[in-house]
Design a protein that fits this description.
Shape: elongated
Largest sheet: 7 strands, antiparallel
Order of helices and strands: EEEEEEEHEEEEEE
Radius of gyration: 21 Å
Distance between the termini: 44 Å
Structural class: mainly beta
Number of helices: 1
Oligomer: single chain
Mean pLDDT: 96
Strand content: 35-45%
Low-confidence stretches: none
Helix content: under 10%
């Protein structure tokens, strides 16, 4: 019978972001779109549910295997917006292109995606108008017609 080996946790030697300010999104076709980020959620990663590999020969444990493919999950941000940018926003919705998420430390991740949603909040007296933008990664280069994952660019000097 085999058993997994115990691995000791080692102190990381990387950079820990001390603050979430200042994170921004940029769309390749309109990097100066009139949106002012307030809260930014970068895209994440998901390996998917495990594949059930249990058979009638298992004795005690259900077994699983990792999937082969990965998913870059949705990113989003809340923002202030200029109503005059309505036509520009219409051009970004469902437009597949390179999108970049800039992190506070100066690093960035670029990926192919489209703006799935621009959703303004309810406008009320005494409240700051804002909207939520949802970005869906495609992992597909719309020009080269090939699968293309994200590209991470570390901060200068790291």
């Amino acid at each position: 019978m085999s058993a997994p080996a115990v691995t000791a946790r080692v102190t990381p030697n990387g950079f820990k972001m001390p603050d979430g300010f200042k994170a921004l999104y940029a769309f390749a076709s309109d990097p100066s779109i009139q949106l002012w980020e307030r809260g930014v959620k970068p895209p994440g990663m998901d390996g998917g549910e495990g594949i059930d590999t249990t058979t009638q020969h298992n004795v005690t444990w259900r077994t699983k295997a990792a999937r082969h493919l990965k998913t870059l999950t949705e990113g989003s941000f809340t923002c202030a917006y200029d109503p005059d940018s309505y036509n520009n926003l219409l051009n970004l919705v469902n437009h597949e292109e390179a999108v970049t998420c800039h992190y506070p430390d100066g690093s960035a991740v670029a990926f192919f995606a489209f703006m799935q949603k621009f959703e303004p909040s309810e406008l009320k007296e005494g409240e700051f108008p804002e909207a939520t933008v949802t970005i869906t990664p495609t992992n597909w280069d719309p020009v080269g017609f090939v699968e293309a994952g994200p590209v991470f660019v570390p901060a200068g000097g790291t």
